[in-house]
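Limitations

Structures in this collection are predictions, not experimental determinations, and the ligand pose is part of the prediction. Treat each record accordingly. The example that follows, with adenosine-5'-triphosphate as the small molecule, is included so readers can see exactly what is and is not provided: the inputs are given verbatim, and the output is the predicted complex.
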Amino acid sequence: MTTIVTLKNMSKGFRDGESFHSVLNNVSLTLQQGQTIALTGPSGSGKSTLLNIIGGFETIDSGDMLIRQTGNMHSVTKWQDKQWSQYRRQSLGVIFQQFNLLTPLNVCDNIQFSLALNQLAWSPWCDELCHQLGLTPLLDRNVENLSGGQQQRVAIARALAHKPQLILADEPTGNLDQHAGLQVMQLLTELAQQANCCILMVTHSEQCAAFMQHRWHVENQQVVINPADMTLQG
Ligand SMILES: Nc1ncnc2c1ncn2[C@@H]1O[C@H](COP(=O)(O)OP(=O)(O)OP(=O)(O)O)[C@@H](O)[C@H]1O
Ligand SMILES: [Mg+2]
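Predicted complex:
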């Protein structure tokens, strides 16, 4: 199994005026290629913070994080903006609850924008993604005029277009009705499997969590790995 992210004794908190609020304390975990994980936990427990750390959108206070880039694991502690942006472009796909699409653009341009950042051209994989996500007839539609479920499917196509090693998803179906949400989950997991992407997905829904192979729970500043997963922690 190939490790793509390792956290070693990582702690993170936020300063609030004079006081310091610890969110994650001494957390160690690994993410493996192709693994899918549902991240659950109470509101305010630190799920989004964990995603932000792994995506490089937040720095860690102590401990270390190692990330696979060009075949090797690298400690991010000395990474500058250049390394972070290269990692995000090449290795990461991000799907948020608010779709974060480029609103003056159509569906095709939204997907192409993500490819262009890596000097990648539209590929048969992109055709396949659009076909399976039902986006082929919508490619020239302005994303602003699409329904919530359609917009979320564009967000998935955009996140997967460059076949990243890791998808970070923060309540990706939170804005959808139950039927559309489950359909989006089905497509996300199938397509990520085809591209061998690891998914770390925050969800409050048991039904959505059931699509993932593993369950991690954030509570009391810890990430509790299900006992069945313990062998993955090496
Ligand atoms: N940029 C920030 N500055 C200060 N405090 C922050 C910041 N980001 C998060 N926090 C605090 O860290 C804690 C964890 O927040 P986080 O957003 O990670 O929770 P969450 O588990 O994603 O919750 P939810 O399920 O409500 O989305 C909260 O107490 C929050 O107020
Ligand atoms: Mg959150």
